[in-house]
């Protein structure tokens, strides 16, 4: 006799709730259909469901996301870096207190004491006809951030060394929920024959029909849940082994929305508005924002960053502010809308010659007009870099391109060999946007504060009642 095991999954929603009612409708219908046919079916999520870019996630610190997953009927989830390092320690500790599903993450360690009550390294589930499935979860080890929040993420391969053989002895099938990225998933598949399925995320890769590496089928469904994934495993009870592994993704962007979920989201919007309606400051006149020229608000924000971090100088790209502040009351919701990025302040050490190169690169048209997606940035373009603590003199060439003519700090030329402490957005410590910043061997991140927390302080200090 053969039995089919069905897993439906989501990954990297990033609080894209415009799509969520479609996700809910698709998953609830799929689960109801399979259960009506007396077939085994599980709903799983691979993390980064929470993203504080959305006011619902911001107002409820991710707990509303958990409630929405409860409503759909998820069975097992793991979490990603957007749950792990964009929430204060206590907010993550209590994030899943009311979850009706299991949370698995084998490499989480609480540096303040015991792990949360909801924490499970792995869980075992059983099919209708008795097939035992072990589900283990892993999340990306961003310990430069986690440890500032009193968590530690253990090395994924070391954890798998501890758990895989034990799971293989207890279960018939092993499924890994991996918020590690496609390269790590492929390496794990090469190393561990016992793992049958890796359902992935984090790097937003889309594998329409899966990918087989060694003995393992790997799958992932992109980002924002435009696609929902499905894994079908066929177990032969006579042979006592899997005889077929399939993985598919379905584009659900055209499907009808689940009406109850849509109503729940509308209710949450109303509730989040109430949470974020606190007035921060009252403005006599509108605060102008521009992505491609200096403005007073950006100058003051960068000054706040420099002073708050006690750095030698500071720099922020003007694209972090998405809109102007209108005259009248400015609320927490306004600040969140205008600066929605889950970006933390940081300080890096740069030699003078590296700082000069960074400043020159930031004035290129290619840099300012870059339409960045990811690295915490949720805006349109990077925009002009604004500086505090350093004076930059520029000229416009005949071709219209701006170039750096002179750079000084406190009236003196930059010492090419001196190490300066430069405050900026953590965005620039990743990837290749500013290589000198990314490769700096000295980086200090500030958590759990976001740039918008410094923006709030700036508005209160510089634009409040006088």
UniProtKB/TrEMBL annotation:
Question: Which residue numbers delimit the 5'-Nucleotidase C-terminal domain?
Answer: 290-427
Q: Molecular function (GO) terms listed? A: hydrolase activity; nucleotide binding
What domain of life?
Bacteria
Q: Where is the Calcineurin-like phosphoesterase domain?
A: 9-205
Provide this UniProt record's keywords sorted from A to Z: Hydrolase, Nucleotide-binding, Signal
GO BP terms in the entry: nucleotide catabolic process
Name one matching Pfam family.
5_nucleotid_C
Report the InterPro entries cross-referenced here.
Answer: 5'-Nucleotdase_C, 5'-Nucleotdase_C_sf, 5_nucleotidase/apyrase, Calcineurin-like_PHP, Metallo-depent_PP-like, Pesterase_YunD
* Classification via PANTHER family: 5'-NUCLEOTIDASE, 5'-NUCLEOTIDASE-RELATED
User: What protein family is recorded?
Assistant: Belongs to the 5'-nucleotidase family.
State what protein this is by name: Metallophosphoesterase
- What organism does the UniProt record list as the source? Virgibacillus phasianinus
């Amino acid at each position: 006799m053969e039995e089919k095991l069905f897993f439906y999954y989501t990954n990297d929603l990033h609080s894209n709730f415009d799509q969520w009612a479609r996700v809910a409708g698709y998953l609830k219908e799929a689960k109801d259909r399979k259960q009506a046919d007396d077939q085994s079916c599980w709903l799983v999520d691979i993390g980064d469901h929470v993203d504080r870019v959305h006011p619902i996630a911001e107002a409820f610190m991710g707990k509303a996301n958990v409630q929405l997953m409860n409503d759909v009927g998820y069975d097992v989830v793991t979490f990603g870096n957007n749950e792990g390092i964009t929430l204060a320690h206590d907010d993550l500790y209590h994030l899943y207190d009311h979850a009706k599903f299991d949370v698995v993450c084998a490499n989480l360690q609480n540096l303040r004491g015991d792990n949360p009550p909801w924490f499970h390294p792995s869980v075992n589930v059983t099919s209708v006809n008795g097939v035992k499935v072990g589900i283990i979860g892993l999340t990306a080890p961003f310990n430069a951030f986690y440890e500032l929040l009193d968590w530690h993420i253990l090395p994924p391969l070391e954890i798998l060394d501890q758990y895989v053989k034990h799971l293989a002895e207890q279960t018939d099938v092993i499924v890994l929920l991996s918020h590690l990225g496609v390269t790590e998933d492929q390496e794990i598949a090469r190393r561990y024959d016992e793992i049958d399925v890796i359902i992935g995320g984090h790097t937003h890769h889309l594998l329409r029909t899966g990918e087989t590496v060694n003995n393992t089928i790997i799958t992932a469904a992109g980002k924002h849940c435009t696609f929902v994934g499905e894994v079908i495993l066929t177990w032969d009870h006579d042979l006592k082994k899997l005889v077929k592994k399939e993985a598919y993704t379905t584009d659900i962007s055209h499907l009808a929305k689940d009406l109850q979920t849509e109503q729940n989201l509308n209710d949450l919007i109303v509730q989040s508005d109430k949470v974020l309606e606190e007035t921060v400051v009252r403005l006599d006149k509108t605060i102008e924002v521009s992505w491609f020229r200096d403005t007073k608000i950006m100058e003051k924000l960068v000054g706040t960053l420099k002073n708050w971090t006690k750095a030698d100088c500071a720099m922020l790209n003007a694209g972090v502010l998405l809109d102007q502040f209108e005259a009248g009351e400015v609320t927490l919701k306004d600040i969140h809308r205008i600066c929605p990025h889950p970006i933390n302040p940081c300080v890096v050490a740069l030699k003078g010659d590296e700082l000069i190169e960074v400043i020159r690169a930031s004035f290129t048209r290619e840099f300012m007009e870059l339409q960045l997606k990811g690295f915490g940035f949720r805006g349109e373009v990077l925009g002009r870099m604004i500086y505090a603590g350093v004076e930059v003199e520029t000229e416009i060439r005949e071709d219209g391109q701006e170039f750096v003519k002179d750079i000084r700090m406190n009236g003196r030329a930059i010492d090419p060999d001196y190490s300066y402490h430069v405050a900026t957005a953590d965005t620039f410590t990743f990837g290749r946007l500013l290589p000198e910043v990314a490769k700096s061997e000295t980086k200090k991140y500030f958590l759990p504060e976001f740039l918008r927390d410094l923006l709030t302080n700036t508005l209160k200090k510089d634009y409040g009642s006088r």
